[in-house]
Amino acid sequence: METEQVGDGDGDVTRADSLAREIFSGVADEWALLIIDVLGSRTLRFTELRSEVEGISHKMLTQTLRGLERDGVVHRTVYATVPPRVDYRLTEAGGALRDTVNGMCVWTRRHLGEIEAARRRFAERERGAAQ
User: Fold this and answer.
1) Which residues pair with 27 in a beta bridge?
2) How many Cβ atoms are within 10 Å of 94's Cβ, its own excluded?
3) CA–CA separation, 129 and 131 (whole Å)
4) Side by side, which strands form the sheet with 85-90?
5) Residue 79 contacts by C-beta under 8 Å, 6 or more apart in sequence?
6) Distances, alpha carbon 131 to alpha carbons 58, 118, 119, 121, 123, in Å
7) Contact 88, 44 (CB under 8 A)
8) Nearest Cα to 47, choosing from 37, 33, 58, 63?
9) How many CB atoms lie within 10 A of CB 25?
10) In whole angstroms, how large is the CA radius of gyration of the chain?
11) Torsions phi, psi of 4, nearest 5?
12) Could you read off the pLDDT of 58-85 as tens digits, one per residue?
């Protein structure tokens, strides 16, 4: 006897797609990618992260780390010391994401000439259309 489940699979796909869009918007910004790259396989304190991610404000680092922690990319450890010590490291999922980001960087370097040529052609075509 076969049992047919209607809708459950589609609901899972829709939910996964929605979650993916939400996560991508959180990790695909400049600061998140830099933080993921800087953490690599290291554990860093907040102040160390801030000094290594050039140009990031205290507020933006805090917001970005909270988002990455919420999405399971970064693990935060708080030590009961005075003053409090807080360490950040990538989770297993965060490490896999870093590998994916590094793969995108490799792709960009591999196709840089093609990308630049396509952009020049596009810009020339746009200039020609504007005249």
Assistant:
1) none
2) 23
3) 6
4) 44-45, 85-90, 74-79
5) 85, 86, 87
6) 47, 20, 19, 16, 13
7) yes
8) 58
9) 11
10) 21
11) -100, 130
12) 999 999 999 999 999 999 999 999 998 9
